[in-house]
Amino acid sequence: MIRVLVAEDQSAVRAGLVLILRSAPDIEVAGEAADGEQAVALARELRPDLVLMDVQMPRLDGVSATRKVVDEGLADVLVLTTFDLDEYVFGALRAGAAGFLLKNTEAKDLLAAVRTVARGEGIVAPAVTRRLIAEFAARPPREPKADPAVLESLTRREREVLACLGEGLSNAGIAERLDMAEATVKTHVSRLLAKLELRSRVQAAVLAQELGI
Question: How far, in whole angstroms, is CA 182 from its chain's centroid?
Answer without folding.
Answer: 19
